[in-house]
Hints:
By secondary structure, this protein is an alpha+beta fold.
Amino acid sequence: MAQKLSKIDRIIAKYQADKSALIQMLLEIQRENRWLPKPAVVRLSQRLGIPINQIYHIATFYKAFSLTPQGRHSISVCLGTACHVRGAPRLLDRVTDALHIGPGETSTDMKFTLSTVNCLGCCALGPVIVVDGEYYGNPSLKEIERVIASCD
Ligand code: FES
């Protein structure tokens, strides 16, 4: 943990412990860890003199932050209206079958985190999933398994 805290200290030093850069610091910690571990939030609170509940308030407000460990690969299934009428619930079933985890869960090997979203802005492709930023329109179970297998 000491090594991780020194990384946090480096991030804080990069922004000269400037309270107004809190969100940038949180973003960097999120990028490094794929989530915001409690010791990191406590360190930020102590070093910046910002109450811990204020930091958690920000961290829970923005979707970019996660307070639970995330898998190395992120898979999102769109359940927006357009995707829903085009079969998103069945697509979600295919994805959960392939991953063996449900929405909001992370695989025990920390490889995948599955989430659902409300619209990805590409309704014509629907139903849609996004795997690490790559969009797939109505993939079959075989395609989903192929994409998952290609993730290291
Ligand atoms: S509703 Fe799914 S991309 Fe818009």
